[in-house]
Amino acid sequence: AAMSRKGRKLLVDSLTRSAKHFTKSEVECLVKLFDTLVAKASSQFAGAGFDRTVFRDTLYNAFGMTDDVVLDRVFSTFDKDNTGCITVEEWVEGLAVLLRGTLEEKMKYCFAIYDLNGDGYISKEEMFQMLKHSLLIQPADEEPDEGVKDLVEIALKKMASTYLRVPFLLQDYDHDGKLSFTDFEKAVRDENLLLEAFGPCLPDIK
Question: Is 48 left (phi over 0), alpha (psi -120 to 50) or beta?
Answer without folding.
Answer: alpha
